[in-house]
Amino acid sequence: MIHIGILGIGTAGTRHLNAFRRLPGVRLTVCDIDPGRRQHGAECGAATAASVDELLDQAPDGIVVALPHQHLAAAGMAVLDRGSHVLLEKPMATRLSDAVKVVDRARERGRVLMVSFVHRFRPDVARAHALIQAGVIGRPILIIDVMTSGRGTMPPWVWDRAQAGGGMMLYNGIHQIDRAHFLLGARVTAVKAEIRTLVYPVETEDTAVIALTYDSGALGTIVQHKASTQIQSAWETQVFGTEGSLAIRTGESMTWTAAGSTQSEPSSSEDRFLGAATEFVSAIREERPASPSGEDGLAALQVVLGAYEAGQKASPLTAIHYGSRP
């Protein structure tokens, strides 16, 4: 029997709870300062802890850390120092140096450190990854990833820079960055960006357009937008290769064109949090690294923070007066 603790039963923590409770041979303890959330955990069959120390004193085999961004790194370090493996919610930290410390500490302690990039476990993404790795579309040279979402309930801290470290890029867009890393099998070497707050009266961004260069020579574009009204939300990814292309419409279909023909597969039902839970427990049982790894988390966080920095350095283009004569 593996003992898993879940620290934080908010939006993400609840989804982790619902996933882990479906795994055989796992017992759960949930920890949250909110009594109502702890009660929900108890109703789901989990034991409860009212404080981090109370949870750590039980020495779970692994702990899911699902707290607001500003607390992730410190909590992850505390868990590792007490000897438990860690499934850490993205983005790992609000500063790259803090995320590096978590990765180093996991290595020093010989503990599993997994980052919760759950979208790798979607069947359409996994299938696209397999096709690219098999060379079906040749060498990937361009990726375009667009995630748009309509107005909806968001944890209030997401719009607070002190707690979140950033806006929609750290909350949602970092998944796009990791998805591109995963599909291309490459890492970003250069970033250009426009980071804007266009529709919400908040201090963090709701919109971003990012241009990326990868170490493989591929190029990429990431678009992230949180609309202020209800829209036709979508997450669409296109990958162009030297011998074909593929397109994912997340949760709907995956289509690829190669060797003169086009094929399409509908997306199958999935529980990406269950996929992540299964991988974390398997890594603990098999005493092996987990994927996505802490290094994967560092790579994605570095790109987002690099985009924030690049977005502050935009240079205006010299005006062109069409129709004028020299």
Describe the 3D structure:
With 326 residues, this protein is an alpha/beta fold. The chain has ten helices and 14 strands. Strand 1, helix 1 and strand 2 form a beta-alpha-beta unit. The radius of gyration is 21 Å and the shape is globular. The chain starts with a strand and ends in a 15-residue tail after the last helix.
Keywords:
326 residues, alpha/beta, eight-stranded mixed beta sheet, six-stranded parallel beta sheet, 27% strand
Write a concise synopsis of the structure shown.
This protein has 326 residues and is an alpha/beta fold. Helix content is 36%, strand content 27%.
Q: Helix content range of the residues, please?
A: 25-40%
Large-scale geometry: globular
Q: Beta-sheet strand percentage? A: 25-35%
Count up the helices. 10
Structural class: alpha/beta
Number-wise, the strands total: 14
Mean pLDDT: 94
As a whole number of angstroms, the C-alpha radius of gyration is 21 Å
Outline the secondary-structure elements.
Layout: E1 2-7, H1 11-20, E2 26-31, H2 35-43, E3 47-49, H3 52-57, E4 62-65, H4 69-81, E5 85-88, H5 96-109, E6 113-115, H6 123-133, E7 140-149, H7 161-164, H8 168-184, E8 188-196, E9 207-214, E10 219-226, E11 234-241, E12 244-249, E13 253-258, E14 261-266, H9 272-286, H10 294-311
Helix pairs in contact: 1-9, 4-5, 5-10, 6-8, 8-10
